[in-house]
Task: structure prediction
Amino acid sequence: MDKREITALGLAWNLGYMIVIPILVFGVGGVMLDKKLDSFPIFVFVGFVLAMTISLGVVYFKTKDIILMGVKPRKNKK
Result:
């Protein structure tokens, strides 16, 4: 494996964790709140929507940062 493959693999793992962790935290939190308050589907759905929103935001900003790091300003050739 060369350095680019290792970097891409690391990025894939990182993005995976950025998506899975909020889903687990808010999903489990929603299930626990629903069990405690006896209101089954409400907090599961709210937790899922929150998790998707947070995951989307984190992935968006991470991808934006990676793209901006790859773009280098050009020098004018005159």
Summary: DSSP finds two helices and no strands in the chain. Residues 5 and 43 are 40 Å apart (CA to CA). The first helix runs from residue 3 to 37. The helical segments are 3-37, 40-70.
